[in-house]
Amino acid sequence: MSKASIAWDPRDSRGPARPVPGAVRGGTLRILRDADHDHLDPQRIQTIQATALGHLLFRTLTMFAEDGEGGWRLVGDLAEHPGRDVDGDGRTWEFTLKPGLRYEDGRPIAAADVAHGIARSFEESLAGGPQHLQDWLRAAGPYAGPFTDGTDEVPGLEVRDARTLVFRFPQPRPDLPFAAALVTTVPVPRDADTGESYGKAPLASGPYRIAEHVPGERLVLERNPHWDPATDAVRHDHPDRVELELGVDAATQNRRAHAGEGPDAVAVAENNAPEEVAAQLLADPALGPRLRRDRTPLVWYLAINTARVTDVAVRREIARALDKEAVLGAMAGATQGEITHSILSPATIGHRPYPDPHAGGPRGLPDSWDGRTLRLLSRDGAYFTAGAAEVRRSLEAAGFAVELVEIERPRHNAAVLTRGHAYDLYLMCQAADWPGASTLLTGFDGRTLRATGNANYTYLDDPGVNAEIARVSALPADLAAPEWAALDETLTTCHIPLVPVFSYVYLAVRGPRVGGVFTSSFLGTPVYYDAYVTPAAQGGGRG
Predict the structure, then answer these.
(1) pLDDT at position 538, please?
(2) Within the chain, what is the greatest distance between any pair of CA atoms?
C-alpha cells in the first residue's frame, strides 16, 4: 500500500479486503472499555472510539483503508469509487453505489437511504456528529432536517436513481471524497428511522450487527449475515462475535490484557494505560507486538469560550498562565504525551511547528479583566478531573478565580457544543476528521454557529478569520496546506480561542491471542476491522 493516496481506480474499491497475515476465522474478540459510547446513532457519532466501533456496524460512501503502519488509501465503500468530479472544478460530485449492498435485515441499500442519513444529520435534535458536509450543503439553501421540514430533499443533494447521488456546491469542495467517509453518509432507511431513539437499534450495513446492549455494562456484536465481503475493500469479519465489557477502568483493562488469563487472552485494552501501569508494560520485554505505543493525531486543548471571555488580552494571559507540563503529567505523563503549541498535529497535512507564542509565564491580569470567576467544565472521572485541577491551579496562581464544575462524561460534549452555555473553559481532545487541516481549522468559522452541535466549540466569530477560512477552503489540497499552517499560527498567536497543550501517544496492551488490531493513524485509537483471535492451543498472533 502506498503511504497515502486516493484510489481513483474503481478496481481498488472492490472487495474482498486484502488478506491479513496469520488471520483465522472464528472465536470471540473482547474489548475492555471504561464507559459506554455517547451514541450508537450513526449520524450522532463524534468520539473516536465510537467511530472505530462504527466501522464494524456501518458503511459510508468512502472509507480510509489503513495498513497499520501509517499508510492509507481512500477507497469507495458504499460507492464504486471515491467520487467523480463531474466538471473538474470541485463543485459537482457524483457517487454510484455498488450493487448487492444490504442491511442486516436483508433489504437493499439505496441511494435514497444515504440521502436520508445525510438529511437527518441536519436535525438539531440529532446533533453531535461531524458537520462539514452539512455546512457545505447549507450554502445551497436553508434546510433544517426531514422531521422539521417534512422532506429529505436537501438543497444541493440529488438522488438521481436507486444507486446514484449527486452533490452540487456553490463553492469548490475538493475535500468531498474525504468528507464522504464521515458517519454523516451512513445509510438510514426513512421508514426505519425512529429519530432520537434510532441509536437503540440502528440497522447495520457493516460486517456486524448489535445482538445485545445493556447500557453501561456490555455491548455484544454478531455477524451480519447480509454483509457481502465481495463488496467491501476494507473490512473483515474474522471473529464470530465482538463483546465489549463496559465500565472497566483503564488500569484494570491493561492489567487484565497483560495477564491474558482465561477470557482476557482474547481481550483488547481500549483505553490508555495510566502512567504507573504503562511503566510496568514498558518494562516487560516479553510483550513484543502485544504492546502498542503509537503517536496519534489527537491533541488536547484548553478551549476558551470566546463568547464569554471576549477580551483577547485576557485570553492571552490565560495562555501564558497555563502550566502545560503539569496538565500533561496529570493526564498522560511522559510516556503518553508530548507538549505542543500548534493546533494541527504532526500527522496532519500542512502541519508546521512553531515556538510557543505565549512563553515566559504569567505577566499579570490585564486592566480590562472584570474579576469574575472563570467556570472550568470537566468530565467526571479521575483522568479528566486531574487535568482540570492543574488548569485551575495554574490560573489561580496567576490571579484568576476559577470554579471547577464536573459533569457526567456522556453529557459533556453535548453541553459544550450548545451555544450560550455557561462555561468559560474546558479541556477538549480533537483530531482532524481526515488528513487535511481543513477539518480542524474550519471549526473556527463563526458563520457555522448554530444552536447545538457546534464544531466551533470556542464560539469564535471573527470576520477576518471567517474570510480566510473561506478563501483557503476553495484551494486544492496541495496549495491549501501552507495556507492552513499560517492560519494555525495566526489563531494561536493573535486570536487565542484555545491553547494547545499536548499531543497524545496511545499506549495499551492486548491479550496474547489477539491479532490484527492496530492504532488508526487518523483516530488515534484501536480499530478492529482486521482483528482476529487465535485458538487457545495456537498461541498469540501477529498484528
Answers:
(1) 56
(2) 71
